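Anyone up for a design puzzle?
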């Protein structure tokens, strides 16, 4: 059995990835604020075990306990592989740094950076010493490498997540059964986050027109297609430990 812990799995890229992973001898453990009826129906039709854990990752204090609950569903003896996908994220606040409300900035970094750090920490603690395939996939962005006007929170959080994954890789090198980690920018996906970006004013986000054009010209990547590429990478021999890649350029 392969176990997949996926955050933000109820819609968008997370849902697309989860649907692609609904396979024989797979068990999905999904963390989100709501459930996906379509994902549940497909899992039932394919007879694939699926559990939703309804949780707001902005509540970072409860994450260790959440992971304790999740690992009650994992049978160590039958685990052929176990995977954590840190996908959930926020785009707001989108604005000049001095216009970002402190409470929104704090929530953003809790969800986009601190939550993946704590999830990964608990994941590694639970599986330490397991002789099985163990991987963490962090969903990154081109914004981790390039500064954007109005995206100070988003760029900072994604850059921090990339570096965090690289640090895990360094720490795991001496382990007999290491956890492998990788950060992947999946491209510009047609999700609710894109709707939020297009609703910003030009003062808040000067690149707004570019993203409106991408939508109008059909250049946004469907979540299902992006999810298919990520699922293939997650399970393949091309999962390159410690690396940060853009899936559009490398695969």
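Challenge accepted. My sequence:
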């Amino acid at each position: 059995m392969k176990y997949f812990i996926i955050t933000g799995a109820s819609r968008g890229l997370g849902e697309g990835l989860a649907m692609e992973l609904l396979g024989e001898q797979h068990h999905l453990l999904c963390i989100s604020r709501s459930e996906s009826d379509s994902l549940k129906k497909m899992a039932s039709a394919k007879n694939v075990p699926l559990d939703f854990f309804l949780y707001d990752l902005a509540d970072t204090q409860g994450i260790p306990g959440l992971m304790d609950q999740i690992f009650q569903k994992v049978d160590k003896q039958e685990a052929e592989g176990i995977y954590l996908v840190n996908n959930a994220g926020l785009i707001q606040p989108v604005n000049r740094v001095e216009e970002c409300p402190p409470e929104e900035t704090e929530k953003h970094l809790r969800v986009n950076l601190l939550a993946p750090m704590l999830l990964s920490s608990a994941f590694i603690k639970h599986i330490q010493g397991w002789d099985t395939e163990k991987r963490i996939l962090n969903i990154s962005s081109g914004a981790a490498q390039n500064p954007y006007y109005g995206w100070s929170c988003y760029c900072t959080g994604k850059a921090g997540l990339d570096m965090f994954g690289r640090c895990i890789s360094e720490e795991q090198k001496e382990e007999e059964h290491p956890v492998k980690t990788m950060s992947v920018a999946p491209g510009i996906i047609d999700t609710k986050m894109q709707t939020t970006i297009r609703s910003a004013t030009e003062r808040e986000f000067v690149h707004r027109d570019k993203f409106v054009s991408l939508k109008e010209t059909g250049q946004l990547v469907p979540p299902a297609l992006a999810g298919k590429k990520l699922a293939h990478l997650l399970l393949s021999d091309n999962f390159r430990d410690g690396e940060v890649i853009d899936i559009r350029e490398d695969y």
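A detail worth pointing out: DSSP finds nine helices and seven strands in the chain.
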